[in-house]
Each structure stands twice: as C-alpha cells, then as structure tokens.
Amino acid sequence: MTQRRALLGIAAAIAAPRLAAPALAQAAWPNRTIRLVVPFTPAGTTDIAARILAERLTQRLGQNVIVENRPGAGGNVGTDVVAKAEPDGYSLVMCTISSSAINYTLYGARMPYRPEELAAVGLLIRVPNAIFVHPSLPVRTLAELVDYVKARPGQLNIGSSGIGTSLHMTGELLKLDAGIDLTHVPFRGAGPMLQECIAGRIEVGVDNLPSVIGHLRGGLLRTLAVTTATRTPALPDVPTTAEAGFPRVEATAWFGVQGPARLPRPIIDRISTEMNAIIKEPETARRLLELGGMTPDLTPDGGTSPDGFARFVAAEVEKWGEVVRRARVTVE
C-alpha cells in the first residue's frame, strides 16, 4: 500500500504541471533551435537515426533541430542532461534500450535519473543486432564460432559500444546460452568499437545493424547471425541466431524520443505527430530499411503514440532488468 501511494504521488507530481501548462503550450512553439541529444558517440546507430530524424523535423517544424552528442556511462550522461532540462520542448533525447531500460537495473542506486523523470514521445525504429567476426578468424557460422571459442576459453575478445547496451547484453546472452568464455571489451560508442574490430584487435563484435551494415556488405567484417526472430530484408542471406541453434539469443534494439517529464502534452503530441508522418514517408522508410531498421510495431498501437511508447518502455525496463540479474552484469 505504501509503495502504491508513492507511485500515485509520483504520477500526480508529473501530471500536475501538465494541468498548468496550457499557457506554455499556447506559446509559439517552436520559435528557436531544438537540440536532440544523442547520449553516444557519433557514427553509431543512435547517432545515425537521430540525424535522419533531425533532418526531417527541421523541415517539418520550420526550426533547426541539431544533434548534440553527449556520450558517457552507457547513455546516462546525455540522457540525464535532458531529464534535468527545462520542460520547454527545446531539449529532447534520442533514447535507447540501454539508456531508458537496461540501465535502471544495471546502475541501480547510481542512476542519475529515474523513469518518471522522462516523458515518452514516440518510437522511431527498432533494429536487429548483428554478431560478426574479423575475416581472419577461421569461422563462417555462429556454431563454428562457439566451437572455436570453446577450444580457446578466455582467449578471444567480444566488443560492444558500452557496458549495459543491448550489444553487451546480446553478447552476455550468447555466452550464457552457448556456455562460452569471451572477454567483454566495452567502448564509448559503436564507432571506436568497429575501428578495433576492423583492425583485427577485437575478434568478435556485436553491433546494431545500421551502424555496421556498410562494413558487413563491404567485407571488412563477416556476419554470422542477426538477433531477430526472422531474417532481416537488409541482409536476407544471413541466418538468425535461432536458425544457428541459439533461439534464446534474441534482442531487438530500439530508438525513440523522450523529453523532460513535465514537457507539456501539446508539445509532446506535436512532436509525436511529426514523427508518425516522418516514419511513413517513402524516402525516410527506404533509408531506414537500407540501414536495417524495421517499422516500430512492437507496441499495441505501433509505439509511435506517447502513451503506447510509455507502456512499451515500462515493459522493456522489466524485461531487461531480469536479463541483467540473470547474467549478473555489474558496472564498476
């Protein structure tokens, strides 16, 4: 009962400012530059998706939407900037499965923000993760990789874009399911990780498909599997982890938009409406598909409505919290 009252109190605290927000919402918004914070380094999937969205929002809103990279702590640094920002519609964050779901359990009491400090706006895309190796490694399937690693326990590295990201957790799921010993090497974003993989200093990598697909198609890295239940049209010849014999290694990364908790509902609805329109644009859909992105259909109403996205995020917090506990992942 005490916990329920506390939750009701949080909900009331969030809702109360929205009831008093009409004056702000009636102002001419937007009338200046909007910043879309990417809590990771440039060149990763979060950054790529954010720049596609920012370009289209700039044209549709009539004001510049600039991408601001604020990496650190698995997405916590940049996300916290927006969670603590003025709720005026000029500070938004490109949220991810890590920064808005996994990290709450992973960082625990050290999290600088809580779910109730962020307002859901909408889901943009979801993408498969790809498991790949440097071409010099003598393996061509995921099963061959597992056998290769079992013969060399602890000798090979697996790279990700940071502790607690869906890429890290995908690697942990593979280690648990296959019973293999790989040393996790986290980086501050996909860009630095891919550089090391291409150079051969990291033997195995996991990345969101949009940021690695060019290297996979170009032969700089060899794809072993994608982590979705079905094959992706972007790489139709690449098997899924289930087809490779590891059905429990399934992870779909997602990217959406959140703002400060007390962001006025009219502004939330306006951004959400524009996002919905952008997703349906043939050219934007083509660009996202070429990157390996999939339509945001994970929630009952597509995930692109604020309420639908809020429910989806809450479910993801619960789901990935269980994975973190099961894999016993911690941050120092």
Describe the structure using short key phrases:
disordered N terminus, alpha/beta, 332 residues, BUG, 9-stranded mixed beta sheet, 12 helices, TAT_signal, Bug_dom1, Tripartite tricarboxylate transporter substrate binding protein
Structure description:
Strands 1, 2, 3, 4, 5, 6, 7, 8 and 9 form a nine-stranded mixed β-sheet that branches. The longest helix is centred in the last third of the chain and has 22 residues, at 306-327. The chain folds into two domains: 2-127 and 253-327, D-Maltodextrin-Binding Protein, domain 2 (3-Layer(aba) Sandwich); 128-226, 3-Layer(aba) Sandwich (D-Maltodextrin-Binding Protein, domain 2), CATH 3.40.190.10. The protein has twelve helices and nine strands. Helix content is 44%, strand content 18%. Helix 3 packs across helix 10 and helix 5 (98-107) runs parallel beside helix 12. By secondary structure, the chain is of the alpha/beta class. Helix 7 (166-178) links the parallel strand 5 and strand 6 (183-186). The relative contact order is 0.18. This is Tripartite tricarboxylate transporter substrate binding protein.
The CA-CA distance between the termini, in Å, is: 34 Å
In quaternary terms, these chains amount to: single chain
> CATH superfamily assignment of the largest domain?
Bordetella uptake gene, domain 1
| Tally of contiguous helical segments | 12
Biggest sheet layout? 9 strands, mixed
* CATH architecture verdict of the largest domain: 3-Layer(aba) Sandwich
Q: Could you give the count of β-strands?
A: 9
| CATH first level of the largest domain | Alpha Beta
Helix- and strand-based class? alpha/beta
The sequence of SSEs as H and E is HHEHEHEHEHEHEHEHEEHHH
Compute the CA-based radius of gyration: 20 Å
User: Mean pLDDT, as a whole number?
Assistant: 87
The name of the CATH topology of the largest domain is D-Maltodextrin-Binding Protein, domain 2
- What is the domain total for the residues? 2
Q: What is the molecular shape? A: globular
How much helix is in the residues?
Answer: 40-55%
Identify low-pLDDT runs: 1-25, 298-302
Proportion in β-strands: 15-25%
